[in-house]
Amino acid sequence: MTLPGLPRFRNRRAWLLPMVLAFLALAPGAASAESAPAAVPAPAPAISVVTPRQETLTETLLVTGTLIPREEIQVGPEIEGYRLVEILAEAGDRVEKGQVLARLARDVLETQLAQNTAAAAKARATIAQQRATLDQTLAQETEAMAAVDRSRQLRKSGTVSQEALDEKERAVKVASAQVAAAREGLVAAEAEAVFVQAQRDEIELRLKRTDIRAPDAGIVLSRDARLGVIALSARATPLFRIAAGGAIELEAEVPEGAMPRMATGQAAQVTPAGFDAPVKGSVRLISAEVDKASRLGRVKIALDADPRLKPGAYARATITIGARAGATLPQSAVLFDADGPYVLVVRDGIVVERRIVAGLKGHGRLLVAEGIAPDDLVVARAGGFLRDGDRIQPVAADAAVTGSATPADAPKVR
Description:
By secondary structure, this protein is of the alpha+beta class.
């Protein structure tokens, strides 16, 4: 409603003061217009303003997941049928490659080793005996051949009969056969010695495997070994579970819409349950598929070493998936209504509403893709108390704006 003779004002405070003055002028007993003192306009309020700042904001993605070992080693017995007699590692221990985790009973194998030692000594004696026999038969063969040669010379002169010569030749053949048999006996004795040595190697290997060792360095995640249990290589549960190298990572679920923007090497800040500060990490592996039921993909984030990390714990992570440069404003300077985001720009002391296109947020600032110029003065705070067309006195909120100081009699809004 507009009163006759009064101009149309753009806001409530602009037209309220003239109406009050007119009412006082018409009141009974009031002084005449000529004698009334002139009204002093109220000073414009001082409002903090900022100018856009050119900077780069990072785009992040919040994901959640579970801590898991990067590589899990399952340790079991390499031989079976022997009783577990000693346990040397517990869950949580850091172990080195080759370190003994547990021991199996050795008494049966040690007895077999003693029997093998005796068999090896017997094999060596047999070899020595066969060699002696071979030397003897070789000497006999040599003697028989020499006797044949003499008999042949004497046969030419008629001193030795043909029957005697034939007997000497048969003796040579017998000696040669004995030599061949002695050689075969020596080969058999040496083969027996090799067999006994192979048995010994097997027994020593089995003895060595009674020490259950860590295949690689890492942290023992769990121990299922129990004293007195008969070790079976086919048992379903391993005796020990080890996180190889102690490396722990986060297996996180990522919405399918963000999967195309994921890349290995992207930085991440991971905060496990109970941690006061995040642990640094980076994306190590990205799944090749998205679960068709949950519509989530999976990524694995490698974490810096930290003894507090526990596999199975819940954790959330902030992954840096991109960065954009542009003009930014404090988030407090941006207002929102049904039509979207806007800011209040000050021109010649007058507030002007300006629609913008908002971008990334980060560290209390917002990137403005469109809608502001580098030299615009933007109301920094208390924008909700101002309207388009209000007159204010802009005051620098930071070093980006310089100029007028705040008057002593001007109300300051921050």
